[in-house]
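Notes from hallway chat w/ T.B., transcribed later so I don't forget. T.B. wanted the structure written out for a chain they're using in a teaching module, and asked if we could keep both sequence and structure tokens in one place. Agreed to drop them here.
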Amino acid sequence: MGLENVVRAALGEIKADLVLSGGEVINVFTGELERADVAVKGDTIVCVGEIEEHMGKGTKVLDVSGMCLSPGFFDAHVHIESSQVTPTEFARLCLPHGTTSVVWDPHEIANVAGVDGIIEVLQEVRRLPVNFFVVIPSCVPASDPRLGGAGGEIGVREIERLRGEAGVVGLGEMMNFPGVLGLDPGVVARLNAAKGMRVIDGHCPGLSGRELCAYIAAGVRSDHESVSGDEGVEKLRRGMFLMLREGTASKNLSELLKPVVRLRLDMRNCLLACDDISPEDLKEGHINLRIRKSIEEGVDPVRAYQMATLNTATYLGVDGVLGGLAPGRRADMVVLSDIERVKVEMVFAGGILAAEKGKTVVELKRFSYSDKVRGSMHVAQKIEPELFAVRHTRSSATVRVVRVEEGSIVTREEEAELSVVGGVVEPSPADDVLQVAVLERHKGTGEVGLGFVSGFGLSSGSLASTVAHDSHNLVVVGASRMDMAVAARELVRMQGGMVVADRGKILGALPLEVAGLMSIEDASVVIEKRRRLLESAKKLGCKLRDPFMTLSFISLPVIPFIKITEKGLVDVNSQRIVEVIKK
């Protein structure tokens, strides 16, 4: 709709298509509840207030008396791939909860398919009623190539290619903050390539003092990795946008909010984000639940809605289009029957009713992916049990063991004394010592990293997945090498996914055909298959609530203390490969 028609519609000379009448507007500009009607023409809000002159014969009038109207909710930082559904299915799940905008860092698909993968998902999200703001992954690969490789690479040339793409707004989380502080040439070049873009996202847990100042001075504007209240306050005081993360695995919202509320700090730079969220959790709620929790932590309700709307729009520089219910803004609106419980009744995206009574009502067509992202399994070696054999010449071996813990992505080094049979070191399921392996699956190098792990609790069988941060190679853990081979072979056959195997049979499988990360199935199918997978793992004695979430981080060599990649065991602190057998 052209400027002339917008002005005429605002004056009432052209009648509105939609009027929401009788409700209270959550005014995120003034921090108050305001009795006002809202008139919409096309996808744009044209008037807020008294709107009788805007109603005509063709105007649809909705009586929302007793309701509150909010701008559409904004997730300030999320990795869609971690939900194991496509962006289309993510939209189908999040719309009923009031989310109409997300900032997506496609870091995971970039590690598998590089620029081609990002361009393909950009084509998908442009078709959707949810606003997807995409940031270019800044750390692909995420670690030193000597410690493990990925399928894609994002450097200066790739940033320059992507920055002109519609929907791309900035540079994604700069995880390599030591590289920023040490003026690593590659990091500096990436930051310089992103100059002039709307945002450069940060990732700097524990950074403070002059090092924090230097990181911010480099152009980084936000952080979603703060874990303590004091850390969050310091970042707010230094002008950063603080993302209050509340995802499936990492939950920091309460800890970060406590001092902000206690000190009565200005919250204009506080944003709400999920980072990573499972499809099951997303089905239950999204940013709406983060608003509710903020209110429960003592935040004034309107301030909580500001964090979920205007603040993120301001961070992105799109507050003239999104983030508030005001003339000229896109008509992304949430109708609420309870402002403190954040009970969503209706959701409008661009003036169109998108969700009502907990269900998406707008049509979302499935996107067809190309072979560039569907054919991502390139495992060179023949997968047989012998592939996983750790060989030793003595009758027993003292080995390094990767210890995993429930609810943590930090792994610690332990050691175990294991028997050697026929020259092969045997796992000891009775002592919760299993085998673990990572197979390179992007470039057919044939590399395999072997080790041992504890904390999964399997009495038999195997778990395998191609969701393995951040390189997303094939990772498999098991009580027997036979079942590890069975599970790994099934993953190759499925072109990626998650598998549970036992006694030579597949007990459960979730194909993730898109880059080995996302399913092409409806979200409801994915959720049901995940449920069956977790049940199968539990029947094998698994102690972890979501062993696949734990498995996905066992190969990330930027998180302490010991990990495993296709190169072998990695001592994270020293950033070097170490031997599995100590003696």
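Follow-up for T.B.: The CA atoms of residues 371 and 514 lie 9 Å apart. Might be a good example for the class.
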